[in-house]
From TrEMBL:
CDD domains with a match to the protein in the record: Lysophospholipase_L1_like
InterPro entries: Ester_Hydrolysis_Enzymes, SGNH_hydro, SGNH_hydro_sf, TAT_signal
This protein's name: Arylesterase
High-level lineage: Bacteria, Pseudomonadati, Pseudomonadota, Betaproteobacteria, Burkholderiales
GO molecular function: phosphatidylcholine lysophospholipase activity
SUPFAM superfamilies to which the protein is assigned, alphabetical: SGNH hydrolase
Length: 219
């Protein structure tokens, strides 16, 4: 009896001290797996502008994660009309609050619409990607393209900003968020009356563009 009592006391002490060595016949429990936090920092394309809540591509991403049985939390910090400057100023507080494992940067379109210098867009995206990485998060850069009426050279230079930042910052890249939406025949049918914001029916395609870049980071 004394021997059994001594053994129980020893096992209880091991548990309290958190020792890795298990007693004969016992198996240590595996630590709980951390559920990654995905932070989406975007503009109206991610903020469900003009849509019923829960119908945008970010909400569809949450559903996709459930279907794929991937335990992850999505934080949508997108604001309609936001620029890369706005995102850059908001990001530090968001990182501090949510401690994201993955940061999706979907910003830049409003920079172009407002005629802001491409160098500013590049600097802001670079700063956001770098600060996210320094905080321990992996980064997805979501690329955009401008319509032909902006001029071929400007369109090429604008698109190159996203690819360049992704390469320099070792980030995953979504080449074009609106691929299959804005670059198809009769593309106007995919947009709301303002011809800027995609309809609800286009958002599954937008998610399909993001998913191949995001999924490998969730493994």
């Amino acid at each position: 009896m004394k021997k059994d009592t001594t053994r129980r006391t020893w096992l209880r002490q091991c548990t309290l001290l958190g020792l890795a060595v298990a007693a004969p016949g016992l198996r240590a429990a595996s630590p709980a797996r951390h559920a990654p936090v995905i932070l989406v920092l975007g503009d109206s394309l991610s903020a469900e502008y003009g849509l019923t809540r829960g119908k945008g591509w970010v909400a569809l991403l949450e559903q996709q994660l459930v279907q794929e049985k991937i335990g992850a939390t999505v934080v949508n910090a997108s604001i309609s009309g936001d620029t890369t400057s706005g995102g850059r100023s908001r990001l530090p507080a968001l990182i501090k609050r949510h401690a994201p494992d993955i940061v999706i940067l979907e910003l830049g379109a409003n920079d172009a619409l407002r005629g802001l210098p491409l160098s500013m867009t590049r600097d802001n995206l670079t700063a956001m990607a770098r600060s996210s990485r320094e905080a321990g998060a992996r980064v997805v850069v979501v690329g955009m393209q401008m319509p032909p009426n902006y001029g071929r050279k400007y369109a090429e230079d604008f698109h190159a900003v996203f690819t360049g930042v992704a390469q320099d910052q070792q980030a995953a890249l979504v080449p074009f968020l609106l691929k299959g939406v804005a670059d198809v025949p009769n593309a106007e049918a995919n947009f709301q009356a303002d011809r800027i914001h995609p309809k609800e029916s286009a958002h599954p395609t937008m998610l399909a563009n993001v998913w191949p870049a995001l999924k490998p980071l969730l493994r």
